[in-house]
């Protein structure tokens, strides 16, 4: 498998059926799912169904966008779920006044959004330092915060559930913009910016070059360390934001549960979307499509009476199938 | 180069050649000695500081509880030595615990066989998908994790399944032979066998050779495909065994237990000095790694018992994470100097 990965170069076009499968397979699968649901699932083509699915998928996509950038450099970030727990546990402590005392509601809400995201961004940077400065493999470097991060969140809240009602803060999870959920708008904006950055900026080129062939990138003058620091920090920032959205939706923060298993959902979305897991080829829009596929399959099964547990088994099959098809598309 | 190695951050050498394995090996050897020294120090610290630390009750409970993690870490060590990874072990253990709980009314042997067989089957699936479909171990075992989780929930009907208390099934997890808990005996036997297999059999040598350089191992005529499938089957079977013990020890099959076990197992293996890039590893040091991480929790309990500090159980994750950080940073320093 590695030989194939090494042979592959980001810019090399793959022609014929295989290339078609690789580049459009995920989109075709999404289209097929939409058509199937429109025909079979009752009430599928309603604004409400649309919004439910967008609401549920938004946090995964926000996290998976950061994950896409990390994976594009040839890394991985297991800590995203734990970072979500940290930001989600920290925010209520701020706006409920436990941390800085009573605050003006709007100031409190603003601080409860800015500070947790800054903290998780800094923790993402810490991941990046371990990966670059100490040359620790990403999977192990981020395992540290995967284990410790949730513990930190639990210690901050003593494992207690924090419930709250704070409209100005909860706007990021419950508000609407042009009829769309705020987090869906955030998601689309983040995907758009990341896709543009990856495709059309020097930073994006550097990210892909780092993942494609790190040594060659370094010799070509790419600031490999800086690029890696940046992608882990971005993944941290986005995880923090996702944690805030989750608690805003739930009107409660449970450090034991926020973002649990998110690292795997995000990686699955990235893999199904067609990003090469060994780095060097990445698509943020693909990640969005991948997350939508996983979400829609689950929704389809649930809406048609299949239990959630069985949906997990199906999800496993889809991930394998998608990755295998992409491998067929890119090998040889 | 192997799947996991592709993500390594060291300077990428020419394809197929791992940079400076000599330094890596030396660092790993120091780490393996280091973990043993650390284990001895922690035990000495505990023995001097707490009255009952070396008491029969404490030793038995630490061993009984950690034997599940020990079994999983042993399988994980073999997988990691080939340069792979197995994320499915926690979910597979949970699935096995449900299956053995369901079978426990039929007696201890069907329950044991059912749980282990479920683990072996999941491991075989991993091995075949990775070896013959060429899918990265990370993704293949992630998919198996989801599938095992879903299967466990389906079989258990989304709740824990009580085991039969009539038969001898609960003896398996709670029984004691000559003062030693039965799970600890099982784990001890597994480590003894694992050590023999790694050091004295073709399977063991091939395992390390694959992790060192898979292509070279293949060119040397080693049975690469068969051994790769074998390590995942081994890992799955041991996870199944851990699941049986889980059901027996807690009196119930637990479909949602086991989440995150895989990452604690990986942490134990890494603390034990096995390189995540494969090719180097030790069974004994893995056991030291498991015990070290387990004892940290034990010591936390004792500290709370003395009433000097009052740290909630939530601190154990923080402390384990900090400890893992310390170990990997030290390992990185020890193996440093291989050109940046």
Show the largest interface. A-B, 65 and 66 residues
Q: Give the strand line-up of the largest sheet of chain A.
A: 1-4
Structural class of chain A: mainly alpha
Describe the main β-sheet of chain A briefly.
2 strands, antiparallel
Helix content of chain B: over 70%
Structural class of chain B: mainly alpha
Number of strands of chain A: 4
The protein's oligomeric status is heterodimer
**What is the residue-averaged pLDDT of chain A?**
86
Low-pLDDT segments, ≥5 res of chain A: 1-14
Order of helices and strands of chain A: HHHHHHEHEEHHHHEHHH
Report the radius of gyration of chain A as a whole number of Å.
20 Å
Shape of chain A: globular
Strand content of chain B: under 5%
Proportion in helices of chain A = over 70%
- Extended strand count of chain B: 4
Q: What is the CA-CA span between the terminal residues of chain B?
A: 19 Å
Taken from the alpha-carbon principal axes, the silhouette of chain B is globular
What this model shows, in words?
- The complex is a heterodimer of chains A (332) and B (340).
- Chain A has 332 residues and is mainly alpha-helical.
- Chain A has helices spanning 2-7, 16-40, 47-72, 80-95, 105-132, 138-157, 167-174, 182-200, 202-212, 214-219, 224-250, 262-272, 284-303, 308-330; strands at 162-163, 176-177, 180-181, 252-253.
- Chain B is mainly alpha-helical and 340 residues long.
- Chain B has 13 helices and four strands.
- Chain B has helices at 21-49, 56-81, 89-103, 108-132, 137-156, 169-174, 182-200, 202-212, 214-219, 224-250, 261-271, 283-306, 315-334; strands spanning 161-162, 176-177, 180-181, 252-253.
- In chain B, α2 runs antiparallel to α10, α3 runs antiparallel to α4 (108-132) and α4 (108-132) packs antiparallel against α10.
